[in-house]
Amino acid sequence: MNIPTSSFPTDADQAGIFLIRSLGIPPMDAFLLLKDLLDTSRGRGDRITRAKRCIRLGGEALADREKSVSFSQAVRASLEARKHRRPRTLQEIRYMAARMMKKCPELARKQVRSITPEDCGRYLRKSFPTPRQRHKGRLILSGILNYSLKRGWCRRNAAFLVPPPILREKRIRALSLYEAKRLLHTAEQLFRGECLPACALMLYAGIRPHEVKRLTWKHINLKSGLVSLAPTHTKTGGSRHVSILPVLGSILSRMSSAGSPARSVCPPNWEKKWKEVRRRSGILKKSGWVQDVLRHTYASYHLAHFCNQNLLQKEMGHSSPSLLLARYLNMEGITSATGAMFWTHSFVSPAPLKED
């Protein structure tokens, strides 16, 4: 910036200096500020026009930054907006967000508008060790930033721009006939058979573990042969009706007489009792228990016996066959004959349980 030294200030110059002083800014500071502005906006085109554009964009950015909120505030607001959702969904959001803020302490105070895709990728890598956890974390983070976008707290959903991790589905082996019967027999023998109905519903109706915990006997209609799952019960948030086939009906009919329709299908202290049933059954000791193994078992034996993929998709509550084919079906060791035995055999007790 060239400052003329040979000429005397004109009346316009004097008026400008007077205006600057009236604003409480020393003239030299104002001249240096102008120099910084012209240097910053340097480029093609008229310098004054570019400087004005730089001022306008800078003003918008400053207003945006002051309008934004911290990530921790965005989490709280997002949870409040979703308070009508299922408790399990809210618990997942709360847990995943808290884990990211614990592993990356700077995230809690960071303005959501200043979060970049690179930031999101770093938060996910530091917070979650496995691809599946990072996949879930990305969904939660994206949901929070998407809510912030709708509120005007940020200009983009930075998490959406992070490539999702590649997930390699592990094949889950369905239980053998012996393992299935052994598990049912153990459930019948322990705790006065309190765990048997829930066990049978997971095995013979494909009910998810967290869904069965919400079921009461009023959701089970033995006359119509249906288990009704309300939207608040299911993973996807939609209602579902699952057929009660004869082998399941024979078990439920023996256990449904006691108590009121409002009684929970699962007994008190369910998690501890169910874990003990699995342990005492002795199955899957080497490989370890898989969360949805009974749902996988149900799907595989259902298709082997009924050979109706559309029916199975409906019973499972899937909107498309892709998830069913990619994740749930494992026909290894299952034939049409074993499929028929799974669905038509009455409750046959294996050998008595051994005392610990």
Automatic annotation (TrEMBL):
<keyword id="KW-0233">DNA recombination</keyword>
<dbReference type="GO" id="GO:0006310">
    <property type="term" value="P:DNA recombination"/>
</dbReference>
<dbReference type="GO" id="GO:0015074">
    <property type="term" value="P:DNA integration"/>
</dbReference>
<dbReference type="InterPro" id="IPR013762">
    <property type="entry name" value="Integrase-like_cat_sf"/>
</dbReference>
<dbReference type="Pfam" id="PF00589">
    <property type="entry name" value="Phage_integrase"/>
</dbReference>
<dbReference type="InterPro" id="IPR002104">
    <property type="entry name" value="Integrase_catalytic"/>
</dbReference>
<dbReference type="InterPro" id="IPR010998">
    <property type="entry name" value="Integrase_recombinase_N"/>
</dbReference>
<protein>
    <recommendedName>
        <fullName>Tyr recombinase domain-containing protein</fullName>
    </recommendedName>
</protein>
<dbReference type="InterPro" id="IPR011010">
    <property type="entry name" value="DNA_brk_join_enz"/>
</dbReference>
<dbReference type="GO" id="GO:0003677">
    <property type="term" value="F:DNA binding"/>
</dbReference>
<feature type="domain" description="Tyr recombinase">
    <location>
        <begin position="170"/>
        <end position="341"/>
    </location>
</feature>
<keyword id="KW-0238">DNA-binding</keyword>
